[in-house]
Design a protein that fits this description.
Layout lengths: L1 H33 L7 E6 L3 E15 L2 E5 L4 E6 L6 E2 L4 E5 L2 H36 L5 H33 L2 E3 L4 E3 L9 E2 L5 E6 L4 E8 H12 L12 E5 L10 E6 L9 E8 L11 E18 L4 E3 L2 E7 L5 E5 L1 E6 L2 E6 L6 E5 L11 E4 L13 H9 L2
Parallel strand pairs: 1-22
Antiparallel strand pairs: 1-21, 2-11, 2-15, 3-10, 4-6, 4-9, 5-8, 6-7, 8-10, 11-14, 12-13, 12-15, 13-14, 15-20, 16-17, 17-18, 17-21, 19-20
Helix pairs in contact: 2-3
């Protein structure tokens, strides 16, 4: 009995010793695991390389006919018929309306008859003067008879000229009964129906809008204009030579209109109600794709940012004190660098202040960074496709959405 108790005590203390040794061994392993050095985080970096970058700016615009003509009746009378299709393109000289010509034809006939009478009177006066003049020279007739003959001849000559003018007026009035388009363009709806009596109160018949060239009007706010001037003064922007900007038209579906235009007019003063500055561009429209009062977007091209610094948008961080980037030093340690950002350009962001040539900027792997830590750097590769002709990403997206 005593021997059994002694064996149990020995086994008990042996088990406790084994547990203590195991716990000490595991604790040692954990300590060794905790003190093992951490691997430096891997980041993607891009090296800053200044370069000249063409830039463009987009604005909401509205088209306007370069020549809008009101087609009006020049004489009063009954409108016989409309001979054009409303809304279609007509050629210069094409007949649009016909008025009742009969009253004007009668007036012309009457004027021609009156002219014939005056011509006959003129011939009689000429013959009378031809007979009176030699007799007056021979003193066979008095000077008064000669003066009367001259007066009758001159009066008859004036009457012929007056009648000739009346004939021309009657002929013009008759021609005005055929109303033609003065320009080539698209017609609007007819303002008067067939059979209506046309007078000065309702003489407007329709309008014809020239389609080519087409004007495109857009406005620049006072703030935008001042911002642009400040960037030019600081050397951040260069205007094209002679301010000859190329105007590109973006249609409502986001497609690019095949013809480019030029700025032809700038309002010399600001609009006091809107605080904007009106700009007008002229663009060829041979196929009539653009129509008056149509909303489009214009993209001004030709300006350049000299020696601009661009970094990917993912590299820009926002903090309590503004924008900053992580810059990799020569010792492969990172540090925060405050920057002044400009506009977006495709997938990049312009940096106006804070970076210089040769700086290495962290693009990917920024979430785990803190100042003065060692990192493992690899070159950044942007595999995303750049949208065609999208020089200003937010505005291009707005154009596609039709806003």
């Amino acid at each position: 009995m005593g021997l059994i108790r002694r064996n149990l005590v020995v086994r008990f203390w042996s088990a406790i010793a084994v547990c203590i040794c195991t716990a000490l061994f595991l604790s040692g392993c954990k300590k060794e695991q905790a003190v093992a050095p951490a691997q430096p985080p891997v980041v993607s970096v891009v090296e800053v390389t200044p370069k000249d970058v063409p830039v463009s700016i987009e604005y909401v615009a509205q088209t306007q006919s370069s020549h809008l003509v009101n087609v009006q009746a020049r004489v009063s009378g009954f409108l016989d018929k409309r001979v054009y299709t409303e809304g279609e393109i007509v050629k210069q000289g094409q007949v649009l309306f016909l008025m009742d010509p009969k009253p004007f034809q009668a007036q012309l006939t009457q004027a021609i008859a009156a002219l014939s009478m005056q011509k006959a009177s003129l011939e009689t006066a000429r013959s009378n003067l031809a007979r009176t003049k030699p007799l007056a020279e021979q003193k066979a007739l008095s000077q008064k008879d000669l003066d009367d003959a001259k007066g009758q001849f001159e009066s008859a000559s004036a009457s012929v000229e007056q009648s000739s003018a009346q004939v021309e007026t009657a002929r013009l009035n008759l021609s005005y009964t055929t109303i033609s388009s003065p320009v080539t363009g698209v017609t609007s709806a007819a303002q008067q129906t067939d059979g209506t009596y046309i007078s000065t109160n309702n003489s407007l018949l329709t309008t014809v809008a020239v389609l080519s060239p087409m004007w495109v009007n857009f406005s620049i706010s006072e703030n935008e204009m001042q911002k642009f001037r400040n960037q030019v003064d600081k050397g951040l922007m260069q205007r094209p030579k002679d301010d000859s900007y190329i105007v590109e038209i973006i249609l409502v579906d986001g497609s690019i209109y095949p013809h480019t235009g030029r700025i032809t007019f700038a309002d010399p003063s600001y609009n006091s109600q809107t605080g904007t500055f009106l700009i007008r561009a002229s663009v060829d429209n041979p196929k009539g794709v653009l129509r008056p009062n149509q909303y489009v977007r214009v993209r001004l091209k030709g300006a350049i940012r000299p020696r601009a610094i661009l970094v990917p948008q993912a590299a820009i961080q926002q903090g309590p004190k503004g924008h900053f980037v992580w810059v990799l030093g020569k010792d492969d340690k990172v540090d925060q660098r405050p920057v002044v950002v400009g506009d977006w350009h495709e997938n990049d962001w312009f940096i106006f202040e804070g970076l210089s040539s040769g700086d290495r900027v962290v693009v990917e792997g920024t979430l785990s960074l803190r100042s003065d830590i060692l990192v493992t750097a690899k070159p950044y590769s942007d595999s995303r496709e750049v949208p065609a002709a999208a020089d200003n990403k937010p505005k291009a997206n707005a154009a596609k959405s039709g806003k």
